[in-house]
Amino acid sequence: MEKGSPIGVFDSGFGGLTVLKEIVHQLPQYDYLYLGDNARAPYGNRSFETVYHYTLQCVNWFFQQGCSLVILACNTSSAKALRTIQQNDLPKIAPHKRVLGVIRPTAEIIGNFSDTKSVGILATNGTVASESYPMEIAKFFPDLKVFQEACPMWVPLVENREFDNPGADYFIEKNIEQLLTQSNKIDTLLLACTHYPLLINSLRKFVPPTTAIIAQGDIVADSLADYLHRHPAIENNCLKSGQLQFYTTDNTTDFDEKGAFFYGEPIQSKYVAL
């Protein structure tokens, strides 16, 4: 491994910034590189092969920047590409490096939030089609019933900041209703897309007040902290100067403007061609 390396955080666009925000809040001492593949976003409706190809390309870019640990802060990439990269690619191209996702750490604890043992998953088409969440959750909570709803309109609503108007409410209510009609026992909703935390206030209008709404930022940050504690060789190799660098494959001005909305404070990005 390289002598001192930042932690890479990847997303197809802006959503992973909601995860990075929580990671930095909990683990501010480390250096981070964030890459948004905005030029090819969104990934949600793309084929497994395309998502895998794009994700592997971005992972290789992180490796070229010296990263020994990369977090796929993107549910679609985690669902459609992570396993193949971990099992087939890393042993060949970078056996000492690691790529982690957001699905497994979420699956490990999601059942703890539900009293009725019924959980609803709100996600992109690609994540729902992959069946990754039901399969992973079953490993840790075999008695948990998992219901899924694809919400293809939610990402563009968030990115265009249209999520708090009546037009957005129509789509949000529609998807929530379609999910909740699958079971009247659902008491926990998982926001299985990193854009969706920005919709929490709107979601609250259409679910019972006792329903738990779970975002992934804290979960991923907790999981990363635990991973670094359990893997001291990787942790010792991480740079610790608290520096953040942001990159995008598209327009930096647009990324900085919209990215600040997701991250919660101003950011300044650099362009990278893949």
Descriptive notes:
- By secondary structure, this protein is α/β, with parallel strands linked by helices.
- It is built from 13 helices and ten strands.
- The strands form two sheets. A six-stranded parallel sheet has the order 4-3-1-2-9-10, with helices on both faces.
- Helix 1 crosses helix 11.
Please write out the topology:
Layout (H helix, E strand, L loop, with lengths): L6 E5 L4 H11 L5 E5 L11 H17 L4 E4 L2 H6 L1 H12 L4 E3 L2 H5 L10 E6 L1 H6 L1 H9 L4 E6 L3 H6 L6 H15 L7 E4 L8 H4 L8 E3 L2 H14 L1 H6 L6 E5 L3 H12 L5 E3 L3
Parallel strand pairs: 1-2, 1-3, 2-9, 3-4, 5-6, 5-7, 7-8, 9-10
Helix pairs in contact: 1-11
**Helical fraction:** 40-55%
- Spatial arrangement of strands, main beta sheet: 4-3-1-2-9-10
Compute the average pLDDT.
96
Query: With helices defined by DSSP (H or I, 4 residues minimum), what is the helix count?
Result: 13
Beta-strand fraction estimate:
15-25%
Q: Any idea what the radius of gyration is?
A: 18 Å
The main sheet comes to: 6 strands, parallel
Q: Could you spell the SSE succession in H and E letters?
A: EHEHEHHEHEHHEHHEHEHHEHE
Q: Helix/strand/pairing class, anyone?
A: alpha/beta
Distance between the termini: 23 Å
List low-confidence stretches.
none
Q: Kindly state the number of beta strands.
A: 10
Shape: globular
